[in-house]
Amino acid sequence: MGGLARAQVFTPEYQRHVQSHSSHASLSSAGRLSYEDVVRKYGRAFAADKLDAWRLSQPTTPEAKVITWPDQHHVPNKREVEVDGHCVNFFLSMWAVVVEVDGEVFHGDSRFAYPQKDRDIDRRLAEAGFRVIRRAAQSVLDESALQSLMSRISEEYSEGVPQLCTPTSISA
Hints:
Elements: H1 3-9, H2 12-20, H3 24-42, H4 44-57, H5 61-72, E1 77-83, E2 86-92, E3 97-102, H6 104-107, H7 115-127, E4 131-136, H8 137-141, H9 143-157, E5 170-171
Parallel strand pairs: 3-4
Antiparallel strand pairs: 1-2, 1-5, 2-3
């Protein structure tokens, strides 16, 4: 492959074109292999940091919808943060509320759908004093459903519930 043809392979446009013609299984396999390669070269901590940075920079469409609400309403929040030992999609710290958005790519595929695991995590977080709100990605894509959910959260907590979490249970 010549210089110009090789350079084309590295452009974002070309990468998106190739990805759009690849199966989910193929992309997942390639991602897993790349992650394992980074772990071998640089260690698990470095690979995990890179993966976390990528996840933060690449929100799914439903996550992008949910992100805007706390920011617009000046509600302190963190995304993709560890709460009581579990990585959660959103954490609204002033109310100790965890919001999980179950996307179709991960939860819609029966190989990755773990309803019992999700229920166990929700139960453990609730026992630790957190309120967990779990929604299907499709429900937050509907603007009126998203507004309804967020209005309910803000109405429930507008009186100001005491902070239920301790600083040691949350890591940035």
